[in-house]
Amino acid sequence: MKGKDLKPHIGIFGRRNYGKSSLINLLAAQDVAIVSEHAGTTTDPVKKSIEIFGIGPVIMVDTAGIDDSGDLGDKRVERTRQVLPTLDAAILVIAHNQFHDEELELITQLNLFEVPYLILHQKSDLEILHADTLDKIRLNTEAPVLETNTIDLSMRDRIIEVLKQIVPTTAFVKPQLLAGLIIPKDVVLLVTPIDLAAPEGRMILPQVMTLRDVLDNDGICVTVKDTELEDFLKTGIRPALVVTDSQAFEYVSKVVPHDVPLTGFSVVFARMKGDFDAYLAGTPKLSELKDGDKILMLESCTHQLTCDDIGRVKLPNWIKKFSGKNIEFDFISGIAPLPTDLGQYALIIQCGGCMVTRKQVVNRIKLASFQNVPVTNYGLAIAYLNGIFDRITEPFRNIKTTPNP
């Protein structure tokens, strides 16, 4: 998973040979997608990184035709549907006044995942949008409708203006991680252990983003390893907030005075990237586990595994020790599709989600909530297992759970 995937994702959907790839080229003002007169040129969802004025860098997701057929075609359509939970917005391309079951099914799915969208009647130079087609559209959706063709470059600005209206600002405006927690000149202490799982020669993204957020809020940021934490506290400088790696919760919570607010990088990200209220409600399930229960671990990135891996090794072992039960674990990396039957799991544990968008995390959590499966987050789970769940969540309980952009 690359950093570019943190950009807003806009999906392009429609039947085969309706000009989806041409539309991406129009928006990008360059040939970034393959265009062919042959239907079915685009087989699997393809990501294209482009810049849209007024929104900024985005990922356009070019998909296979929603009317594809046959065994292979059905698989392509399924791959297209799997993209839906990852999107911040979508464009449904129609043409030749075709608006039938395939389009209605897609709209149902877009609404299910709360993906805002607009409808483009493409190839209007060949056939204009009929009034009865527009009436049928209006019976099923209030989405904006535009009539366009790929040779009319003036349409680019109209499409972008509508996109700017429907893409949520939370998708491209950077939220403040510590909004409501600190004020200018506050000293914020970041505790960043360096172990075998730490990347060589750099800090992980949550640590870097938290450090930057302290500076953006005119705070004073101090960063130490856990091995130097006690030395810093002996200076007499009292931090307004301590943020630590969740793997060091047990030690840091003992060393940092109880009247100093304490939280974790993954907790900060849980508030920004996920459904924090759902995490708070689901975490106590760790005390109710039974023999034979299954837990699904969601890692939103792919990385080389080590003996110290938090999601694959440490956290499962801590849960087994805490519960004293025989627990089974399944693992999913990246944004691969979730199992259809999530009801088989007693709990789902999501990572911090630093390498994916908030929409991608929230929609995964939503799939769990549809089947009444409790969810939590790595950091919140680790805090609970260490008996400091209330302490590390207390700083957020008196402010909005989702930080404002």
* Spatial order of the strands forming the largest sheet: 2-3-1-4-5-6
**Class computed from helices, strands and strand pairing:** alpha/beta
Return the CATH topology of the largest domain.
Rossmann fold
Count every beta strand, where a strand is a DSSP E run of 2 or more residues.
14
CATH domain class of the largest domain? Alpha Beta
CATH architecture of the largest domain: 3-Layer(aba) Sandwich
Helicity level: 25-40%
How confident is the prediction overall: mean pLDDT? Answer: 84
**Using only CA atoms, what is the Rg?**
24 Å
Please state roughly what percent of the residues sit in beta strands, choosing from under 5%, 5-15%, 15-25%, 25-35%, 35-45% or over 45%: 15-25%
Describe, in plain words, how this protein is organized in 3D:
- The chain has 405 residues and is of the alpha/beta class.
- It has three domains: 3-171, Rossmann fold; 187-269, Rossmann fold (3-Layer(aba) Sandwich), CATH 3.40.50.11420; 277-385, Rossmann fold.
- Helix content is 34%, strand content 18%.
- It has 14 helices and 14 strands.
- The chain has helices at residues 20-28, 70-83, 101-112, 131-140, 155-166, 205-216, 229-233, 249-255, 265-273, 276-282, 310-323, 358-370, 378-385, 389-393, and strands at residues 9-14, 46-52, 56-62, 89-95, 117-122, 145-147, 187-191, 220-224, 241-244, 262-264, 294-299, 328-333, 347-350, 375-377.
- The protein has a six-stranded mixed sheet, with helices on both faces. Strands 8-7-9-10 form a four-stranded parallel sheet, sandwiched between helices.
- β13, α12 (358-370) and β14 (375-377) form a beta-alpha-beta unit.
- The longest helix has 14 residues, at 70-83.
- The two termini are 24 Å apart.
